[in-house]
Structure formats: C-alpha cells, structure tokens
Amino acid sequence: MVYNVGVLISGSGSNLNAIIRSGINVKFVVSNNHNAGGLCIAKKANIPVYSWESLSKLESEVSKLILKYNTDLLILAGFMRLLSSNFIQSMPKLSIINIHPSLLPAFKGANAIEQALKYGVKYTGVTIHYVDEGMDSGLIIDQATIKIEESETIISLQKRLQKIEHKLYPSTIKRIIDSRK
Ligand code: GRF
Hints:
Structural class: alpha/beta
Strand content: 15-25%
Number of helices: 6
Bound molecules: 5-O-phosphono-beta-D-ribofuranosylamine
C-alpha cells in the first residue's frame, strides 16, 4: 500500500525539502502565505502547490485535496496557523502531525526557541506530535534533545535544531507509515 501525504507550510520549507528528499510520497503542498519559500521547493519537485490566506477557505480546500489525492497523513511543516476544531474533528484520529522546536509541553506556541533561551533552560529540543484542537498539545510521537551552549543565540540554536528536525521528521513520518502498512 502506498502512503500519500499532504504538507501544510507557511515559510521557508526546509522541513518540506527534507521530507521530499527522503522519498515520502508528497501529493500536494498548501500554504497560507503566497510567498512561502517552500512553494518553490515543491514546484521544483513537480508537486502541486496551492495557497489560500483565509484559514476557513484553506481548510475546506485541503479537505477536498485529501480526497482528490487520496492522502493518508497531513503533515504540518512550519505551518503557522492553528487549525480549527471543526477541521480537526472532520479528520481521522491521528492523521495530522506537527513538528515543534522545543521539548513539549515546555514552550508552546510561536517563538519557542526564544522562549527557551530567555527561560535559561540548559536543554531543549524538537518534538513531533499528533495535532489535536489545542496549541502544540497533542500526543507526543518522538523527541530529540540538545544541550544549549553558553554562547548560544536564537540563530545558532535554530540552526542546530533544524539540523535535527531534518532527520527526525522524515524518519518519524516513515516509521508511522511503515507501522500502518
Ligand atoms: C521549524 O523549525 C518547525 O519546528 C517549526 O517551524 C519551523 C519551520 O521551518 N514548526 P521550515 O519552514 O521547515 O524551514
């Protein structure tokens, strides 16, 4: 059985790129931001792209795309909007996955990297979780930890975390796909 995924993005799409390069079957990419860099990455890979700024329009169109492309999982890769309860409830359980740059449940929401640095934690990391109706509150699938260096800046920490994300996200998605085959 071939597993198809759809990916939602808002920005540069470096995780999308890692997912595509890993060979996961990405059938469509949707953004809420017409200028998201990740749209170019998808186009170069010949993956259909769509963008809608309105969340309600985006959700109703994504529901149609899921049927059209027969996708099994919806992957959020730097998608910066909170999906509505209606949309989440309309989807099968455990079918939407997100990646977040902190060790959840610490530092939810935007600016997670900045929040961790400001708080002064010595370790932070990356969390991959299923999406529920809350903000970064769904069931945790996997996590990876790194030690925060003395000289760490938001930029340096973001780079180190993204390096981890680009390995952990594709491998975790593949593991989920394999376990459902
Ligand atoms: C990632 O760091 C992810 O953890 C967060 O948003 C960022 C997206 O980066 N949810 P990119 O668009 O994949 O480069």
